[in-house]
Amino acid sequence: MKKLYVFLGPPGSGKGTQAQLLRDSLDCVVVSTGDLLREEIKRATVLGKKIQAVVESGGLVPDEFLIAIVEPLLSGLNQKSGAVIFDGFPRTVGQAEQFDQLLTSLGRSIEHVLYFDASLDLVLERINGRRICSDCSRTYHVAYVPPKQADVCDDCGHALIVRDDDQADVVRKRYQAYCEQTAILRSYYADRCVVIDTSRTLDSITQMVQETFGCGHRS
Ligand SMILES: [Zn+2]
Fold this sequence. Notes:
Blueprint: E1 4-8, H1 15-25, E2 29-32, H2 33-42, H3 46-56, H4 63-74, E3 84-87, H5 93-105, E4 110-117, H6 120-127, E5 130-133, E6 139-141, E7 160-161, H7 168-181, H8 185-188, E8 193-197, H9 202-212
Parallel strand pairs: 1-3, 1-4, 2-3, 4-8
Antiparallel strand pairs: 5-6, 5-7
The protein binds zinc ion.
């Protein structure tokens, strides 16, 4: 049976990068609520427009919007192979409680929660170099995860850009909102939470994450 994981951490903590590495190296499905929200915005649905207003103000998307997006995905999980990583969800105690209820009704539970710990200074330094593909949404970092060719996506060849919500003032607001609403999930999930110190090198972070998945690499 596939194991479910939750990746928690402020924007710029590197959790998305680790999820992407696992997707590339293992048989993992990554459910990024950030990507799902951006898709909803792109499609300009009623929900998408509401989400856009919240994101542009630097706030966190309300629980009921997230649940409305995640719920239909959950029933399809059993057809997928490998581990499933929820990247950036749940974000509040309310979402975590509703998520637990949904999982219980499906006879499932979360295996581990990986908490990517990062200071605001570290986050600002990291996000400064972050780029995203304008077409397929794959993420890069000019120093840590550079594309093979500068400013061009390895996968699809489209241009890399700086995302609107990676601007410094928006990042500060999101970090503060994260501290107020999401950091508490570290104690909510205390019985299955693994804390990752993200001030370490990318290699040692990757090793720690992969050991949690039972596939530690020591090369
Ligand atoms: Zn691309």
